[in-house]
Amino acid sequence: MSIQAFLDFGKSLQRNGKTFCEKASCNFLRKELPVRLANIIKEIHLLPESLICQPSTQIVQGWYEKSFAELITYEQADLTNDAIVSRFTQDLIKIRNRHNLVVETMAQGVVELSRGSEDKRIMVDSVTRDSIQYFLDRFYMMRISIRMLINQHTILFGGELPFSAGHVGTIDPECDIQLVVEDAFASARSLCENFYEQSPELKMTCINTVNREEPLKIVYVPSHLFHISFELFKNAMRATCEKGGASLSLPPIEVVIVKTTEDVAIKMSDQGGGIPQRNMPQLFEYMFSTAPSPVDAGTSVNVVPMAGYGYGLPLSRLYARYFHGDLQVYSIHGFGTDAVIYLKTLSESASEFLPVFNKSVMKQYSSTR
Ligand SMILES: O=C(O)CCCOc1c(F)cc(-c2c(C(=O)NCc3ccc(C(=O)O)cc3)noc2-c2cc(Cl)c(O)cc2O)cc1F
Q1: Interval between CA 117 and ligand 1 midpoint (Å)
Q2: Cα of 106 from ligand 1 centre, angstroms
Q3: pLDDT (tens digit per residue) in 1-15
Q4: Closest to 283 in 3D by CA, of 330, 320, 326, 240
Q5: Mean pLDDT, all residues of the chain
Q6: Ligand 1: which residue has its CA nearest to atom 27?
Q7: Phi then psi dihedrals of residue 115, to 5 deg
Q8: Which residues on adjacent β-strands are paired with residue 202?
Q9: Tens of pLDDT along 165-215?
Q10: Is 227 among the residues known to form the active site?
């Protein structure tokens, strides 16, 4: 699906009526969701045995198999029966809630593997690490796509409220990029103030090369852009405050947003000291991110780290890539870091970027089986 297709379907409710559209949406989802779940389940089976055998991985696998089994009971259902259509929508809400903690539970499975909870002899070799990195990128991207399909349906038909008026499901047809980025900055800033008792200022420049003097708007999912921006601002503020120490004036975080006919680019530049090039690959690694967190290391539990080895960055890159955008980080060690979010300007070009399951995928795992 492209963002435009999601939008067109949502807008067709006025023309075709809600009941007709809910049946059409059910008919699409009862085929599409089991296919996406089946792809994930097939790929879980290809994981290194050392990860599959972990208790938390087993829990996640069980959730996917249970949800698949529930959805395929609708394969031949009579969708002219309103009660069945309504039950399908309620079951989607139940399935989405069942999977709310998949990221954390899967991360726990990776931690259990790293700690060798089952068998101290398990060392995570680089081939296993690579296949886990490959799997989790695909696994979490598929999860983003499944939750997008379910959320669109449950907001349009399940009585769940859209984020605000004018939105079509989770999509804002006129998403004001500057406002969402400023919102994310404010949220990260209050977290920063609580933790560091200081925070850098924001210096923002907006350039709209398509319609000068107009606000920079595109059709997008504001919650995705907020999630990505919030994560990047947290990192930039952490580096700036850690480097700045108790100095009175911190260098600002400079944001430049540029919209052209092709792309929207959002660059966030900080003077937080940067990272050595040798460390850059680790930023996006799930295995690195799940190293025992500062809290695990015995720090007092009330110390909530600004950025605590979470999956924040790799997941943010998946959100950016989901509709064919990207997230890139350029760091100058000794000076600071630039993080750039790229989004598609045209909603027709912003189509879902889905992992496909085929023979070449199986080769990616073959060396670990
Ligand atoms: O919780 C999560 O998922 C995010 C966890 C991630 O947490 C991090 C974090 F917030 C910020 C940094 C960091 C540092 C740093 O820390 N520099 C100090 C140091 C100096 C020397 C060496 C060395 O010699 O090895 C390493 C670091 N410098 O720039 C950044 C930085 C990183 C990103 Cl992705 C960004 O968007 C903006 C930034 O300013 C690194 C993180 F890792």
Answers
A1: 29
A2: 24
A3: 999 999 999 999 999
A4: 330
A5: 91
A6: 275
A7: -80, -10
A8: 253
A9: 999 999 999 999 999 999 999 999 999 999 999 999 999 999 999 999 899
A10: yes
Say whether 302 is catalytic: no
Let me know: does 255 contact 181? Beta carbons within 8 Å: yes
Please tell me the residue having the least CA distance from ligand 1 atom 22.
275
CA 364 distance to own-chain centroid? 23
**Would you state the torsion angle of the CA atoms of residues 275, 279, 284, 285, taken in this order, to the nearest 10 degrees?**
-150
Quote the tokens at residue 95. 């399935």
Say yes or no: ipTM exceeds 0.95: yes
Q: Of 104, 229, 233, 235, which is best to mutate to test ligand 1, by the most ligand atoms within 8 angstroms of its C-beta?
A: 235
> What DSSP character marks residue 294?
T
Q: Express each pLDDT in 136-178 by its tens digit.
A: 999 999 999 999 999 999 999 998 888 889 999 999 999 999 9
Query: Whose alpha carbon is nearest atom 4 of ligand 1?
Result: 307
Q: Is the pLDDT of residue 65 over 70?
A: yes
Probe ligand 1: pick from 103, 104, 275, max atoms within 8 Å of CB? 275
Closest CA to 92 of 150, 29, 157: 150
Average pLDDT on 291-301 reads 45
pLDDT above 70 as % of the chain: 92
- The conformational region for residue 116 under phi > 0 = left, psi -120 to 50 = alpha, else beta, is left
Which of 158, 155, 157, 187 is CA-nearest to residue 172? 155
Amino acid identity for residue 235 in this structure: N
* Alpha-carbon gap, residue 272 to 128, rounded angstroms: 33
Q: What are phi and psi of 268, to 5 degrees?
A: -115, 115
Six-digit token pair at 107? 């991360």
Concerning whether 231 is annotated as a catalytic residue, the answer is yes
* Ligand 1 atom closest to Cα of residue 311: 3
Among candidate residues 235, 254, 259, 344, the one labeled active-site is: 235
pLDDT digits 0-9 by tens, 221-271: 999 999 999 999 999 999 999 998 777 799 999 999 999 999 999 999 999
Q: Residue holding tokens 């249970």?
A: 66
How many residues belong to the chain? Answer: 369
Kindly list the protein residues whose Cβ atom lies closer than 6 A to any atom of ligand 1: 232, 235-236, 238-239, 270, 272-276, 279, 283, 289, 307-313, 329, 331, 337, 339
